[in-house]
Amino acid sequence: MWPTLTRLREPMTLAGVFTIGAVSLGLRFLPPDILPAAAAALGAYASGFLLFAVAPDTWKRSRRIALVAMAALALLLAWLTPRVGTAQVLLVIWVACAVNVLSPRWVIGAAVVLNAAFYALLVHHEFGAPGTMTLINMGFQALAGLCVHYARRAEDSRDALARVNADLLATRALLADSARDAERLRVARELHDVAGHKLTAMKLNLRALASDPTLAAREEVRIAQQLSTELLDDIRSVVQAMRDSRGLDLQTAIRALAAPLPRPALALHIEEGVKVDDPAVAESLLRIVQECLTNAARHAGAETLTVSLKNEEAGMHLRIEDDGRMKGGMREGNGVSGIRERVAALGGELEFGTSATGGLRLDVRLPA
Question: Which keywords appear in this protein's UniProt record, sorted alphabetically (predicted)?
Answer without folding.
Answer: Kinase, Membrane, Transferase, Transmembrane, Transmembrane helix, Two-component regulatory system
